[in-house]
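Reminder to self: tokens first, then the designed residues, so the page reads top to bottom the way the pipeline ran.
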């Protein structure tokens, strides 16, 4: 039995034990999945859990008028999945931004090398053309092995 098992034999025990592990997502999820009483919690206790854990999204799982219990495990699992999807989308967006920045820096460095090579070779007219003609520029990148 949990920490409050000797004092409370009702849903308050579940509520207090969930509250005690609210800061550790792993413990919180493990508790939900290992305690059958989380599968059917009355709406009042569920609302208290929502308030105590500052989970404003939990209210979307409150039952309709005819229902009398809430499946907390399902609610939390859905919230975790939503958070994971949101985190993945954010990570992908950040990765793309980093990739763009790296690609831009590499492109600028490659162009700077080509400019320096053409200036050193005294080929300013070729440089002028390459600035306007992407095909010529790509040929020069290959010619000077600036890939």
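Designed residues (147 positions):
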């Amino acid at each position: 039995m949990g920490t409050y098992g000797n004092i409370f034999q009702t849903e308050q025990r579940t509520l207090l034990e969930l509250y005690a592990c609210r800061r550790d997502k792993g413990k919180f999820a493990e508790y939900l999945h290992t305690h059958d009483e989380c599968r059917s919690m009355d709406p009042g206790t569920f609302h208290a859990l929502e308030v105590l854990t500052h989970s404003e999204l939990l209210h979307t799982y409150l039952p309709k008028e005819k229902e009398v219990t809430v499946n907390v495990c399902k609610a939390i699992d859905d919230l975790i999945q939503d958070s994971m999807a949101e985190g993945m989308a954010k990570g992908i967006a950040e990765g793309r931004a980093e990739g763009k920045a790296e690609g831009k820096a590499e492109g600028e460095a490659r162009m700077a090398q080509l400019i320096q090579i053409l200036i050193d070779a005294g080929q300013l007219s070729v440089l002028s053309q390459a600035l306007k003609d992407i095909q010529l520029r790509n040929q020069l990148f290959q010619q000077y092995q600036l890939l």
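The helical segments are 11-20, 25-34, 43-52, 72-120, 124-132, 134-143.
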